[in-house]
Amino acid sequence: MAEKNEFTDINGKAILLDCQNYSSFCREFTVSSPKVSLCKVIVCTCSVWLFAYAVFFVTENTAVLSSAIIITLVGMMMHIHLVKVEHETLLIIGSLGVQLSTSYASGRESTTFIEMSRIKDIVINEAVYMQSIIYYLCILIKDSGDPNGIASVVPLFQSSKPRLNCLVQVYKSCQAIIAQTR
Amino acid sequence: MVLKIFFPTCCNTADSGLLIGRWIPGQDSAVVLAVIHYPFIPGQVKKYLSETQNQSQVDLAVLGSWSLPKDGQEGMDSFLKDLSTIFPNSRWLQLSREIGKRGFACQVVHNRITPPDPAQGGTDKKDQIIFIHYDQRKVMLSQLHPIHEESPGEESSELRAVFHTVAQSGPLFLLDRYDEGPLKLTHWQSEGREASIVVELSKQASVPLCIVLTWLVLLSFQLFLYVVCCRILNIWPVQFISSKMSTCVQTAYRTNHFQTVFSTKKATSHMEFMRKANIFVSFLVDMSLGLLLVSWLYRENHISQLANTLVPVADHVAKELQELLEWLMGAPAGLKMNRALDQVLGRFFLYHIHLWISYIRLMSPFIEMILWYVGLSACLGLTFALSVLSDIVALLTFHIYCFYVYGARLYCLKVYGLSSLWRLFCGKKWNVLRQRVDSCSYDLDQLFIGTLLFTILLFLLPTTALYYLVFTLLRLVVVMFQGVIHLAIDLINSFPLFAMGLRLCRSYRLAEGVKFRVLCEEPGTPLHLMMEINPLKCSSVLQRYRTPTYSCYPRDSWVDLCKKLFMGELIYPWKHKTTKTD
Amino acid sequence: MGQKKRSGRVHPPTCPSETQPPAAARTLDPPNSSKARGFGREERARHRICMVSDFFYPNMGGVESHIYQLSQCLIEKGHKVVIATHAYGNRRGIRYLTNGLKVYYLPLQVMYNQSTTTTCIHSLPLLRCVFVRERVTVVHAHSSFSAMAHDALFHAKTMGLNTVFTDHSLFGFADLSSVLTNKLLTVSLCDTNHIVCVSYTSKENTVLRAALNPDIVSVIPNAVDPTDFTPDPSRRDNSKITIVVVSRLVYRKGIDLLGGIIPELCTKHHDLYFLIGGEGPKRIVLEEVREKYQLHDRVRLLGALDHKDVRDVLVQGHIFLNTSLTEAFCMAIVEGASCGLQVVSTRVGGIPEVLPDELVTLCEPTVSSLCAGLETVIARQRSGKVPPPADIHSKVRTLYTWRNVAERTEKVYDLACRQPVLPLPARLQRLQSHCGAFAGFIFSFLAVIDFLFLFFLQWLHPDHLIDVAVDASGPHSCWGPSFKKKAKDSNRAWPPGADTRHC
């Protein structure tokens, strides 16, 4: 019961939306970004090393070379551990809650679960992002004091940033599940 | 509606029996806590349940039946159905597991004995069921964040209710610890019973030991506290000075903590317990670090080496200051100053330095002895040693502080004079009653005198400002050094070591929430989810369990600080002026 | 089509649809507007308008309410309207107001007096994004004080969109700041398709300042909502005479004059009371006057007023006093007259055009002249020879209505849309021939840079990657009646996903 669709993110890069249908009220959406391209890594590493070699050629100090190697290694590790997101998952279980998880290229995974009783709605909203205006999917969290108020907004698919057509598809199935189990 | 059944993983392979648990009020969910095996007498089960309910304050009920057919036990089905009439409930769950399959089958029987709730009207509609498996031990021990201590009874959150139910039903798990009762149960304790007995015994034994220790410590401590706090500290000048000395502040802080840790009251809430544990662990770490320092200091005559370097350094600083003043009295950086004022100020400060140097000379024979005794304070902890160091630095740079105060006062006077004379220039005045600037018409004489004064002040300002600037910079260097020491002290004082260790070794104890994993999807069986505990992030552990300390760094923002410096107001530590009247 | 939509909608400017052309703008807007009208009858073009100005709600003032009311009326007529302004403190991002009026609060740095900094370049990415995703056809900039409006005009021309500019203020020619602003205005307006002024004085001023061809300048006055400003004589205390002043307490509004008038009149008339609403740096002047002459019981300073409270203040008075030193079109005196007050005003700028002579007493902007004017009105009031408030209200009611303004603005849009947008070479030529050698050169250079920057942006983030926004107003609006309730309770996070379902 899984279907895969190709979409693009706001920068025109291809992303993959994978809908896994576990049951009528439990569905999982996975947006996966393209993997770390070997080519890019090689180009980055080579450029840093070439630069280091040039500096070494001028200064004749071997510390430059070793520090360049350490910098590239640490930089790459930081990148795959903290920055590069492999896929983002939205698991929606009717009447129980919504679980968001982000897995990084290093395998690190951060997960949050939001109970259905705290969720007011799931909507598509607009925001100014960097130098453009984008659509994004977000969960509105109820304000415990005031039943109509919104305490906070949790944006979904924050790092892959799919375009509107992809968001609409996720939005529709989420709304269907919420409407069915509420 | 979707029916949620929270099922402990340890009961997966339990023998057939009755399911004991709780219906979460307001939610459509049930928490299974244990399985009672055959054979049992229904009356005994009811009695047992009511007993446990009294102890744990959780309204337990028989939820339904559990069957795991083994060979030779085939004809139980009809019997299980009949059970529902013995234990009246609006809903009766019939869980059954087949050997070959991983999933369970579940059937919900709606009893017509009690009228069904109007909320669950459509009984004929097929109920959808989610099985949520949880690790009973971890859920019982974990603490869900953020913590709401005040209202455990009426949780709006379902998960909170589940955690609360499992944590509260401890008596259910403890009752059959030593002897075999009339009922046989399966829950997490049934897996590792021996180990838990050892834990219990050691707990029992440790209590009297702790009490004896506590009494000993407390008695000696209370006496000391009484003398120190009530008698000496409350006399005015002592109190004032001690509030400025970081050693005294640290002592007060530590005694305060001592009282909390060794109080005989049991920590009731989670936060209180964590606070005590954190303080205790950080205290231990502090002490051991301090002892390390002591062992280093008193080996190989390090003390006398220190003393031999300290005196020349202080001397050197004074010399440098003298040179700086002489430079300022000439034409510093090519600036042409007001000669008369420059000379007066320079001589004044030079005299101070002379006083200071003679003071240091007088002190120098005793410095080693002082250091030897002061070094002993490191036995009380590294923080003590550091605060003593901070105080020594403050004492040794007292002349810089004096210079700063003189410079700031002069400068402040000039700035205020200039600003009020500027208003006179514009035909305005400060209205003290209304706290605003009013327009005002001045006489010719007033204007003349005002202008004259304004001119004089304006031309003398650069000289004063230069002295102020130089001494402020010196003062800031000292304050920064002290600030670094205080930051280190604060770090040791407030770092939640125990919580951090708990997070690293028993990550399920501090839960931020839960995460779910879809277990298996066989067509025809209900959805199975695995509930795992999502540990609290390290950063939020730090934030939540940080021990509050006296904050020794300035509380006002950088902009405020700059403004104060510009206006010539005194910064740390002499800042008691709160309202500014112009 | 547009008129049909009016049914069942609550709308701020509820005025009779049949309106007489006001006194101030009796003549036609542009010379060939009759053609536009004919065109409009058969098949009226629907525009997608982006209003750009630094000044919008939560800031309060004439420009802000003009933009809001005009947008509401244009939405009612079936056009799509969005508003772009800069972020006000916490109010940033995208918000929706009544009837699906979408407002972009863009994060641009505010420099002075709520006006953004301008480099003519840095706001291009955001404004381009707004223009592309809303598929804007007409960019309508407001107020010559607003740097963002000028920027938007500049970028819109670079992107090949039609542009309209409304000038709300008068300027001098003498001091340095006005010389600079006038130069900027010249550059900004020389290739704008159409310009709108609020009064004939303002038109004259703008034409002179920006060295424009008067043919492309139309006059459309401001309007007030007469239903909000109804007289209520029972609220007055007829045992005394109350003079009401409602304005921001700044130099431009002549507060120093007011400070001179108050003691002079108060010594002469012992039953004279002043009621002053508004806040500003000149408040201290009034407070000092009050203390010096001990007039605490007779001069009341109300402080800042909400727009909804203005009417309650106005109806308490007999005479409305306006002491402005410069004014393009004075809305305050129309509001005062609409509440049935006798209006005394300075004769500056476009004020003489606003009200017919029998409703207003005009004076020179000096203390003595204003005092004389007030004396005559007070004498008239004492003798009871003033028309009843209801009469004054009925006269004023039909003078200025937002529907009328919207209709005329619509014609301006029709006209502007049929004009070509100058391509880059022609634009450069126009700039250099029109703005003098130095400024012309600088701004041609900026225009080229802007153009290249646009190219760069189109390469970096092509137009087809920008999601087209869901229309909240206009012909393809998804703002159905069922939706309105939901949107009303929170204009913070409107769920636009919900109406993608309808599409």
UniProtKB/TrEMBL annotation, chain A:
BP GO terms, sorted: GPI anchor biosynthetic process
Taxonomy of the source species: Eukaryota, Metazoa, Chordata, Craniata, Vertebrata
Entry GO terms, CC: glycosylphosphatidylinositol-N-acetylglucosaminyltransferase (GPI-GnT) complex
Gene (UniProt): PIGH
Family recorded in the similarity comment: Belongs to the PIGH family.
Protein name (database record): Phosphatidylinositol N-acetylglucosaminyltransferase subunit H conserved domain-containing protein
Residue ranges annotated for the Phosphatidylinositol N-acetylglucosaminyltransferase subunit H conserved domain, each copy included: 89-158
Pathway: Glycolipid biosynthesis; glycosylphosphatidylinositol-anchor biosynthesis
Stored PANTHER family: PHOSPHATIDYLINOSITOL N-ACETYLGLUCOSAMINYLTRANSFERASE SUBUNIT H (PTHR15231)
InterPro entries, sorted: PIG-H (IPR044215), PIGH-H_dom (IPR019328)
Automatic annotation (TrEMBL), chain B:
Any matching Pfam family: Gpi1
GO CC annotation: endoplasmic reticulum; membrane
Keywords: Membrane, Transmembrane, Transmembrane helix
Keyword flag Transmembrane helix: yes
A GO biological process held by the record: GPI anchor biosynthetic process
Transmembrane annotation, as ranges: 212-236, 279-298, 344-363, 370-397, 403-426, 447-470, 476-499
Cited PANTHER family: PHOSPHATIDYLINOSITOL N-ACETYLGLUCOSAMINYLTRANSFERASE SUBUNIT Q, PHOSPHATIDYLINOSITOL N-ACETYLGLUCOSAMINYLTRANSFERASE SUBUNIT Q-RELATED
Protein known as: Phosphatidylinositol N-acetylglucosaminyltransferase subunit Q
Origin organism lineage: Eukaryota, Metazoa, Chordata, Craniata, Vertebrata
Gene designation per UniProt: PIGQ
Automatic annotation (TrEMBL), chain C:
GO terms under biological process: GPI anchor biosynthetic process
Source domain of life: Eukaryota
Entry keyword Transport: no
Annotated TM spans: 437-460
Keyword tags: Endoplasmic reticulum, Glycosyltransferase, GPI-anchor biosynthesis, Lipid metabolism, Membrane, Phosphoprotein, Transferase, Transmembrane, Transmembrane helix
Positions of the PIGA GPI anchor biosynthesis domain: 86-175
Membrane disposition: Single-pass membrane protein
Gene3D superfamilies tied to this protein: Glycogen Phosphorylase B (3.40.50.2000)
Main location: endoplasmic reticulum
InterPro entries, A to Z: Glyco_trans_1, PIG-A/GPI3, PIGA_GPI_anchor_biosynthesis
EC number: 2.4.1.198
GO cellular component, one term: glycosylphosphatidylinositol-N-acetylglucosaminyltransferase (GPI-GnT) complex
Region spans: Disordered: 1-41
Reaction it catalyzes: a 1,2-diacyl-sn-glycero-3-phospho-(1D-myo-inositol) + UDP-N-acetyl-alpha-D-glucosamine = a 6-(N-acetyl-alpha-D-glucosaminyl)-1-(1,2-diacyl-sn-glycero-3-phospho)-1D-myo-inositol + UDP + H(+)
Pathway: Glycolipid biosynthesis; glycosylphosphatidylinositol-anchor biosynthesis
Keyword Ribonucleoprotein recorded: no
GO terms, molecular function: phosphatidylinositol N-acetylglucosaminyltransferase activity
Family, per entry: Belongs to the glycosyltransferase group 1 family. Glycosyltransferase 4 subfamily.
PANTHER family: N-ACETYLGLUCOSAMINYL-PHOSPHATIDYLINOSITOL BIOSYNTHETIC PROTEIN, PHOSPHATIDYLINOSITOL N-ACETYLGLUCOSAMINYLTRANSFERASE SUBUNIT A
Biological role: Catalytic subunit of the glycosylphosphatidylinositol-N-acetylglucosaminyltransferase (GPI-GnT) complex that catalyzes the transfer of N-acetylglucosamine from UDP-N-acetylglucosamine to phosphatidylinositol and participates in the first step of GPI biosynthesis.
Name of this chain's protein: Phosphatidylinositol N-acetylglucosaminyltransferase subunit A
Species of provenance: Electrophorus electricus (Electric eel)
Name of the encoding gene: PIGA
